[in-house]
Amino acid sequence: MANVLRLSRAATTVGLAILLVVAAIIWLLPRSAGDRELPLTEDSEISSEEWARLYTAERSTLPLYRIIAAVPTSELTPAILPFPVGDATWSRSNANADNTRFSALAQINTQNVSRLQVAWTYHSRDGAGNIQANPVIVDGVMYAPTVGRNIVAINAETGVEIWRFSLPAAIAGSTGDGFGPASRGLTYWQGTAAHGPRLFFMANGYLVALDARTGKLVPEFGDGGRAPSSRGAGSSSWIGAAAPVIGGDLIVAANQTFVDAFNVVSGAHLWSFNTIAYPTTDPIADNGGNIWGGMAMDEARGIVFVAVGDPHPNFVGIDRPGANAYTNSVVALDAATGRLLWSFQGVRHDLWDIDIPAPPNLVTVTRDGRRVDAVAQVTKLGDTLLLDRLTGRPLFPYRLRRAPISTIPGERTWPYQPDLELPQPFVRKTFTKEDLTNISRAAYNYARAIANGASFGWFEPLRLDKKTIFYSVHGGAEWTGAAFDPTAGLLYVSANQIPWIIGLSRAAKGAVDANSPGARVFAAKCAVCHGADRRGQGMVPSLLGVGRRLSATEIANVARSGRNSMPPVVLSDRDAHDVVAFLLDQNTRSADDVANETPAGSDYGFTGWTKFLDQEGYPASRPPWGTLNAIDLNTGRLVWQVPLGEYDELTARGIRRTGTENFGGAMATAGGLVFCAGTRDLKIRAFDQRTGRELWAQRLPFGGFAPPATYEVNGRQYVVIAATGGGKLGGETGDAYVAFALPR
Predict the structure, then answer these.
(1) For residue 518, what is the domain's CATH number?
(2) What phi and psi values does residue 147 have, to the nearest 5 degrees?
(3) The domain containing residue 508 runs over which residues?
(4) What is the pTM of this model?
(5) pLDDT band at 465 (very low <50, low <70, confident <90, very high)
């Protein structure tokens, strides 16, 4: 705002009244709700409680609900194909450019699936790790990434390797993040009379083209088989490894925040689109808006649909005010030019890491007897955004609810957040004490004691030095997304219902003395993970204000012994003493020395990604903790919901069908089946599409943390899945792909 009002703690009642009058006048100015600011700044000398009261006075004048009206049926986009169809090919990860993960194959069906057995197992023998890719199968050949960061072609009937491509170091990138090229998918192009078939995937910021017949780089594409993204080469890891989409002579790929289009033959760059549309303090940093969910392509209409992640930093939005477009959005681009056609944002000014994680599904549904084309987008919040294909307008009334305010000075939460009724959410959205675990009295008492000291509620913002419990950090829906049966209008999505505990801390008022002994130890041994500014990065927590959470002894013990995924750090007694003093902010210059330095979002940091677990390590909420869901997109109603996975040790105690946290994703077939893996019990399962009843299960050698695929060779149908373990659920890692078929 042009005029900044500053209040002291001794503000009089008259002063407050004047402030509220000014706020009311500002409210009446012709500005959108999202553009309004409070007449305060983050460095005001006002307490959090006073800030909250003033902020609430403005927020409470808003209506409780707002509704974005559904598109009238007469204005919906008519379906190009008048009758439901299915496809038996699998030329792209997730089956096709629509991301349906549906196959018209029906040899394996509800009557015989119980006879399914292992047909072959392939081991890449180049290490152990985590593969999250759904493979490609064309003309009896399966194309897939390996844990050793290679790409292989495998005989899809026998499991025998045909060729292997080892990426040059310049393309492969580092191995530090555990993810490699094509780790979330690849795409097959059938070629032309003049140009043979190709395999495309993202690797380390490059779009790479291989000859599908030989496994060698295509020299005529880009620079010897690779074309750099607009973000730049060497800039991506798993974030930039979603499968490209192809339409005509265009191939569209994504890397971090950039969508790039290239000529599919030459690799010539045609256009780019950046998903960051809000001011950032450091354009080189990871500001969020990453395209790690993936894309879809409506080739007939020439539209690319992009799923965009949340803004960064997570949990603190002071330095990124406003809605933060185009994060947490579905974005539609003109494939020929890259021009923005429309965007639809779910959560705005995200402070909870509840972004859009999965690829969009292009669907055809029936409304009032008419077949219409739409986009379905599942979210970590457990919603399904069902949007008109051409306009991005919702097919069901989209309800927004007045959201809480933040008690953090400078943090301006968005006035409204989604509170959908239809399509029905497929998880519980808000943690309450009624959600506390019920698997045992001891577990309940343990969880209740923790919950009693925490805050929670619908879109409750984080509080300073207080725990906040909420769902959705690992879903609702996760990166695996959904499968869609076009013949029935049903969407199948696996989901998580795990509570998390997140906190927020602030650094000391003085600025850190970078020349202190502790600062030097931290820079040498800790900053690579926790960041030079101690704010944390990725899954690594902030260490700002760590002294309010841990004692000096506890900090030293964690540093030397490690915790969770943090390895032990070798420290001498002197180094341990110095780095603890540094982390306790005992090496700071006085506030007088930094009187002109204004506090900002960088002064805050979250206290780590911590699951809310009971004393035995199980989720501290009531089961089910993981589910498989069927949603009728014609009506918006849940058809069925069943637990997905179980803990053998709990089953032995009589606690059955709890479901487990899962990262697998469903696949559907015309045989009336839904296949899904990704659970902690390492099983792949088949379910009846009509009822959700489990019909078959088989334990995999390692966790199957990827969606399965299906194909046919010489009249025999197969189901194949990457089974390598690891990833977000951890556990033993391996190098396998496993294929199943009926007995000959």
Answers:
(1) 1.10.760.10
(2) -70, -20
(3) 504-607
(4) 0.84
(5) confident
